[in-house]
């Protein structure tokens, strides 16, 4: 049963495609149409690409009885079609479970109210609320769900025009000023992916001047403009699906390779690490009553170090030596800073002579 709005949208896109294509649709065609619909409705471009496997699962769900559709979807020569030309999933009855799921999805969407992507969805959400949330069941569901509010960060005004440049495969001129830099830099850039991390947005692409892959923070972009005379070079751009696969966050230094990270957590963190992985590559390699040791395949970067530091004295870095040294260096620096602040505080509280 779907627990997100994206799945419901995909079902309706597949339904519309099968209605309008009498000779059937391939998985690639359906995946492309679903991806376009998700992005058009304000989806995250970095997360909205629909795979053929997802479409196969959606078709299986639509054929089954759990959704109430029981769609007569057939396949011949790799093309999917309705055996009943008059079938529409809109004719299917919305079940009580459907109402639960839609209500939960609407409540989640409303946490994005005021953000750039929600602006195009606001009228749709209001219409759905008018039709769905009028029932007592739906109101009860929303009353017992609470999602974290998503604040809008600086730089989001660039998302829509940059998204347009990516979709049209256009080179842009970026005026960029990193934090701490006194002057800005201006350079041609081949954008290929917008990525969100911890409520900040980043742009992945190739710096045309240095011919290197870079990730730019949108809140540090001062200006940009289209460069129609530049040829967009997609051959030099990274694979969207794999570039950040072995990364916590967005920082990837040139030439960095994934390496085996081994972390040992004490008993206070044992149940949390077991029930929520730090990364999809996480593997438990040892477990006792007092500790748990995990292995991850990750690129060492600032975000990984910050994540480890957030566990303070509840974790020990076993491998690699370079990461262990980096964490020890940061711990020593934090200890020195704390001692200085403590001494300064003591001197300020002593009575004057």
TrEMBL record:
Residues 162-226 form the WYL domain. This is Uncharacterized protein. Pfam families: WCX, WYL. Residues 258-335 form the WCX domain. PANTHER family: PTHR34580, SLL5097 PROTEIN. It comes from the Bacteria. InterPro entries: CBASS_pafABC_assoc_protein, WCX_dom, WYL_dom. It comes from Pararcticibacter amylolyticus.
